[in-house]
Amino acid sequence: MTMTPSFQPAGAPPGGTSPRHFLDLDQVETGTLTGILDLSRRLKAAGNANALGQARPLEGRVLALIFEKNSTRTRVSFEVAMRQLGGDVLMLDASQSQIDRGETLADTARVLSRYVDAIMFRTKEPERLAELAAHATVPVINGLTNVAHPCQLMADVLTLQERKGSDLSRRVVTWSGDGNNVATSWVKAAARFGFELRLACPEELRVDPEVIGWARTSGARVVEGVDPEMLVDGADCVVTDAWVSMGDEEQEVANRHNLLRRYQVNEALMARAAPDAVFMHCLPAHRGEEVTDAVIDGSQSAVWDEAENRLHAQKGILAWCLGA
Ligand code: CP
Ligand code: NVA
């Protein structure tokens, strides 16, 4: 991508007639994702918005944040990103808005589009995100659903590239744990960024085979199995996430723990990865469950850089969505 003051990557709609939604990694072209990460890197290196050629590129723009699930990192990093780019944010607590009283997401989208310049939505079912996006005339950003967390993966890929170089084609990432929303987004990221992804998940908690099928059709190298020791062997990155995601509490938690115990990332498992392997986790972590203190606090852990990179990656996403 050429360095221009204005972020207009290949694949952008001419004239900006339709909103640039950021809904999932399989819905944005690889070249655009790469361009967003290049911009994120430049913004991070510059330490301010000057990488976009102006100090306050999003001056006068407002981002609405709607959360139907809890958040620390996503909320704070979007708020800070927007403010550091000169824009503003407003938080809409879904439980205190008319959404919770049954106003449709379609109508909510129509109304919010008259007030704000972009909407970030964290929700449960992907259909809710799709409904909001279908009726919004401003960009909609996926802040996590039950099946995807694309903003997280942009930060994760940025972190992996910082540690292992921008060409990930010879890198191996092993996921050990629940085949959840974040794991699903890692599968899509493998298709977009070219690394080999090995999924070590219990048979009962595998990633949706349709997503794996899509990724393989797109050229991704995805290996599946139930044996974490075997799949971690020689990996450049070991990644995991909570055994009980938001919303899973309604299911049998004890059963999940039983199924996932052998997938814990501990020193013994890390010792099977490459000597310079990094450990990653989107956070929040449940210490002593999916990861031990020794690993998350150890020298191979990249989790705090990963959390910081939410801020930088989302600046890139916001700049692209808003054509800054
Ligand atoms: N990783 C992540 O999305 O964290 P939050 O739930 O705190 O936003
Ligand atoms: N899989 C976790 C990710 C939290 C950021 C969840 O959905 O709760």
Question: How would you describe this protein?
Answer:
With 324 residues, the protein is an alpha/beta fold. It has helices at 30-46, 73-84, 105-115, 126-135, 150-164, 181-193, 209-217, 228-232, 253-260, 267-270, 293-296, 303-321; strands spanning 62-67, 88-93, 118-122, 140-142, 172-176, 196-200, 221-225, 237-240, 278-281. Strands 7-6-5-8-9 form a 5-stranded parallel β-sheet. It has a 4-stranded parallel β-sheet with strand order 2-1-3-4, with helices on both faces. Helix 2 links the parallel strand 1 (62-67) and strand 2 (88-93). The chain is globular, with a radius of gyration of 19 Å. It starts with 29 loop residues before the first helix and ends with a helix. Bound molecules: phosphoric acid mono(formamide)ester and norvaline. Phosphoric acid mono(formamide)ester (CP) binds at residues 71-74, 144, 152, 282-284.
Describe the secondary-structure layout.
Blueprint: H1 30-46, E1 62-67, H2 73-84, E2 88-93, H3 105-115, E3 118-122, H4 126-135, E4 140-142, H5 150-164, E5 172-176, H6 181-193, E6 196-200, H7 209-217, E7 221-225, H8 228-232, E8 237-240, H9 253-260, H10 267-270, E9 278-281, H11 293-296, H12 303-321
Parallel strand pairs: 1-2, 1-3, 3-4, 5-6, 5-8, 6-7, 8-9
Helix pairs in contact: 1-12, 2-12, 3-4, 5-6, 5-12, 6-7
